[in-house]
Amino acid sequence: MAEDLKGAALLFDLDGTLVDTVDDLAAAMNHALAEAGLAAVPVSGVRHLVGHGARRMLMQGYEISAGRAAETEELDLALSRFLDHYQANIAVHSRPFDHVIEMIEGVLARGARAAICTNKREAMARLLIETLGLSSLFDAIVGGDTAEAAKPDPAPVRLCLEKTGAERAVFIGDSDTDIRAAKAANLPCFIADFGYGPTTLAAEATVFSDYRQASRLIEAALNA
Length: 224
Fold this sequence. Notes:
The structure is a single chain. Helices cover 44% and strands 13% of the residues. With 224 residues, it is an alpha/beta fold. The mean pLDDT is 95. The chain has helices at 22-35, 43-46, 54-66, 72-88, 100-108, 122-131, 155-164, 176-184, 211-222, and strands at residues 8-12, 19-20, 95-96, 113-117, 140-142, 168-173, 189-192, 206-208. The chain is elongated.
């Protein structure tokens, strides 16, 4: 097959874009809350908390469950409990979204590269991808603690570009954070409407509902 996409890269957000992780994230957060004697947050209420890292998610979870902000020591302990539980149960329910792996394999076969740009801690992102058996698909995994700043800052996006050696790329995400990061890095952005959001800035991106549909749109953008 001709390598017509050589020099191009797909940059993926992770949670809510590449992998449906909300059940395992909710389980880890609710474990930490339960250890503090607090009520669980329904999975439906956790979806919109994902995307800014574990500490921020726990802060919001604490406010929902306890009706107040967590003290620093409480939050530190909750974070430790969250990370321990999540690391031990990182892919109990988490699975790639339908058709995304086929799409990635298709563009890689044509010379493109792929990377992950997430606000998840890099070690956790790598563990998840390794556990799911997907490591061979990605030239780089950049976490929220990898670059000097996390999304929506463009620094992690630019680091992904550097690590893949891409001359052109698109960013694929599921939230306003991704849209802002892509825009700041001057990349076209594609947004999965089945992700965790929020997507109040969706008009500034190309929205898709299925990776089979997105594949054609993304390839066209890479060849533009």
